[in-house]
Amino acid sequence: MIDKTHSLILIAVMAGITMLLRFLPYFIFSKRTPKAVLYLGNVLPYSLVAMLLVYCLKRTNFMSGSHGIPEIISVALVFLLHTWKHNTLLSVLCGTVCYRFWCSLYFN
Amino acid sequence: MNKTTVKAAFKASLPVMAGYTVLGMGFGVLLALKGYSFWWAILMCVTIFAGSMQYVGVNLLASGASIISTAIMTIMVNARHLFYGISMLKQYKDMGWRKWYAFFGLTDETYSIVSLNPDLPEGADRRDFNFLLTLMNQCYWIIGGFLGALLTNIISFNSAGIDFSMTALFVVIFVEQWEKTRCHIPIYLGLGVSIVCLFIFGADNFLIPSMIGISAGLFIFRKRIEEVQEND
């Protein structure tokens, strides 16, 4: 049985803290932003997108199963395609189709 | 909000559409399997709007976790959003009422697109663009969550691998960033520190040490980075 009240409280906690994390920098720095924070805000996107990329691929198993081959090939395809054509939709679409194709080879 | 801006935002949101709908559906299915109706899925997609947190949240709800452990878990999983807020301070500050929603909706994907400061067509308003892009992305997410929870027992559609579109989007943004600047130290740092931390701390715990390491690295190399950036 679902405890509705407790579930609602937990959702409020998750929502509240997530919001706080997203608003906090604004609350603290909107009046006066120290130079160090401006610098960080300026360069962080470059580092964080790289981190998110690693985050997306963190479960890739290079040692067994598919040995990460679908991931490697698809990421390489997106990389090359985008360097060449610079069309976001095309790159994402082809990469995803390619990934599904390679996965179906390994897991069906 | 003019038509040009709406169009531009919609176009920018397209790569997110498939990924959010499918990931949202995955969340909806998991939640429904624990006995929650689709109203719960919608409630969570509207108020929390954070992908991995909602997946973790399913288990927290189902196991009747305590408030304290839920709070700690949320901080651990979502700490990176602090950094998104820092990066968007300058751009979002002048957005008026829109900034509240824009900050609220700073997910990984929205952040990676808006922080790139993409070129907009003539006549488009960047403040409206940021706002609309966030809103459209959240709509995809809510629709996905709703459909997943509603159709749990009906879906036979094989969605395996569609979530790769999110990875592909990050690769695309990675390439765009790489070409946008000559200063690649922050990118190397992001990649290097994250990979090292992934090996040391494992897949479930590497984000927070990575963020600490990246920040430390960015300050260690601050002089060099700022030198190269000035010549950009």
How many domains of chain B? 2
Shape designation of chain B: globular
Q: Can you summarize the main beta sheet of chain B?
A: none
How far apart are the termini of chain A?
37 Å
Q: For the report, how would you describe the main beta sheet of chain A?
A: none
What is the number of helices of chain A? 4
Largest interface: A-B, 68 and 92 residues
How confident is the prediction overall: mean pLDDT of chain B? 92
**What amount of the residues of chain A lies in strands?**
under 5%
Features:
heterodimer, A: flat, B: 232 residues, mainly alpha, 2 domains
Q: How is this fold's topology laid out?
A:
The complex is a heterodimer of chains A (108) and B (232).
Chain A: H1 4-29, H2 35-56, H3 69-85, H4 88-107
Helix pairs in contact in A: 3-4
Chain B: H1 3-33, H2 38-47, H3 51-62, H4 67-78, H5 80-92, H6 98-104, H7 108-114, H8 126-150, H9 164-180, H10 185-201, H11 207-220, H12 222-230
